[in-house]
Amino acid sequence: MATQIPQTATSEHATAGLLPRIGRSLATVPALGWLVGVLCAVIIEYVIGDTLAVMLYLPKVPALFGTTLVLKQPLLFPSALLFVLLVYVLPIGAVARLSAGWTNRAAVALERVPIWLSVLVHLGLLYAVLHVWTEASDYRLQVAKLIMIAVMLTLSINVINGYMGEFSCSHPGFMALGAYASSVFTLLLFKQDRLFGAALLPESLGPYFFPIALVIGGAAAALGALVVAIPSFRTRGDYLAIISLAFMFIVKSAIENIEPIGGPRGMGGQPHWSTLPAVFAGMAICIWIINNFVRSTMGKALNAVRDNEIAADAMTVNTRRTKMVAFMFGAFWAGVAGGFYAHEVRHVTPGSFGIQMLAEILAMVYFGGLNSVVGSIVGAVSISMISEILKPLQLYKWIIIPLILILVMIFRPTGLVAFRDFDIKRILGARR
Amino acid sequence: MRKLSTVLVLVFSVMLVMVFISCGKKRETIIKIGINAPITGDIPKVGEGSKFAAQMWLEDIEKAGGLQVGDKKYPVALVIEDNESKAESAVKANTKMITEDGVMVIIGPQSSKQAVPAGGVANDYQTPMISPWSTNPDTTKDRPFVFRACFLDPFQGPVAAKFVKEEFGFTRAAVLYDVASDYPKGLAEFFKKAWEEINGPDSVVAYESFTTKDTDFSSQLTKIKDSGAEFLFTPQYYNEVALIVKQAHELGFNNPIIGSDSWGSAETVSLCGEDCYGLFFSTHYAAAGAQGATKEFIDRYQQKHGYVPDDVAALTWDAIRLAQQAIENTGGLTGDVKKDRIAVRDQLAKIKDFAGITGNMTFTEEGDPIKCAVIVRISDQGEYEFYKQVCP
User: Across the interface, do B179 and A257 touch by the CB < 8 Å criterion?
Assistant: First the structure.
């Protein structure tokens, strides 16, 4: 995320001669500096955003950088642009540049401590940014949470479709399993509801058990993945796609026919436990573990299986085991994402986990880039943001998004940021 | 480099000065009504109907120069959000309308899949919401801020059963429904229960199901024909109705086929053709032979958009007029939207005998209306004729 900022920060206010100079001077800012800059910007918005909005004749602090507002009322474009410039672009650029000296020194200091500590410091700052930014509006908060859930989902499908090179279509099914399993757990134990009656434990204990609910959801999805993996041992490519597609439909109609969990009417009333810290922590852990997984021996074996299964087998890779582990691992995280989803939307119906959701997940993973953790994050964030921003266009949104996808597929067939590893040391390091 | 920083510092100072100058500016109170509708997605026609009805209402208000509350006229604005017929988008749309746009009342979402989760959001933020079309009991259950403008399945099932018994005196019923869709499934169950209460156990001689997007019903219809049923009840959507009725006639099942309010779309007859003529269904209102305000609404809508509005449009119209009534009944707005929302909610709950174009309404404790159902006969010209009114 931090590497994305320089382009936006410089593009607006510089004249032609100034641009390269600013670019060069900003290149010395480390990730820590950018985070500090963004933090300052969101604090500025939090403190004076509302007054500034009134001054610029904006109805309210723009929720998503003024983009949705501008599409509904194009006349507000100058005001919205000025707002974004004054609140985000200038402060971020200025603070990042001015603090570059000491943030670089801090980054050097952080290079000497264990990497996990450095990561925690950066994550803490990133969380602070998100916290202040989402404080301004609950709509922002919800969009941010759903984007983070989408990131987890996209990462989990990238393990199968990207790293293993199989085309799996069962992700909505895994997500449904996770959503339902975790919902059953929380509703049964902590919440008075229509389907299961009185709660077995006091609700105040619930949030501590939420991680367990998520793990149960993930485990249910992983078990489901085992069911797909066994018959698909002998198949590859298109056949696996069809088997997994069938699995998605089986899950959907199974849930529709199980009356105790609501049948087609769905299951509602989940407690609202997908809070910002919970989802953020979930996403951070998910990125961390998946990043380590794909860089491990198992990840290399996965790539070998993708490139040539027979050769990999000859080189002592246990292809069957590798495929199975990757499939279950991917499904597990899809299930966890499903658990978060269920506790955010707070009503799940089997109808939600269908072809449309599959299309969205696939769009995110192929847009962002295969075989890349960074790519998945970029894909999930950009597709979710674009689709949220373009919503005022209604029907035209469904022309513009596919067009963007087609263009990306033509000019970058593997996605925006494909085949790139997440080198944490390089990202967090100082820029001397 | 130093030059650049100086410029930036200057810009900041100017900005701060400007901020202090303009402190204390006030904003005008506008009554905002949120419309959460499926403009894109699986059921765009439903979203279109809701949008058009809401815009017609806005025209009326604008013509009157605003909404009279107490002794002041307030300008009114519509905030239309597309929920893409997805649960997650409906939740986001509601949150946006409440926290960003500051709407006073939300009309929608239409189908239960979106209305149940979105209702949770509205209730959490203490914003009154009226779903015109959702029949799932969960939408309003334990949610004081959520209302609906249509009757529920537990009411409609018995209405259909009672009507058939009184009209034809049959004793043997068949039911065909979609097991994977919540609305038909629920209604089929309620109908079966009501029918068996009237005619004794085992009076539903065939209870057949299929799954969404099935197009061949011959095996189920053959079973139904062989069971000796005197009529068929099928609470399906318009596209399936056409297939079911045609196939039933081809297989030689010529007994009456009875439907529910899901038949009420303008598309049913255009897809089904003459096969559907003479059939009955229970619904919210009848377009042909309508009188008074209902006729006025239908004529205006048809003139403007070129087709007869279906029940979604009519129910949306009623929902938004209910909201208007409640706002007017508050007797005056405080300007603080949070307080006003609670006042509007209290007035909504008190509404009695509201004269809507889909019938008179009185709200129960749960926020569900007590209203009459209409039995419609599809005439020999393919129009929806008012046949009978059935009240609880």
Answer: yes
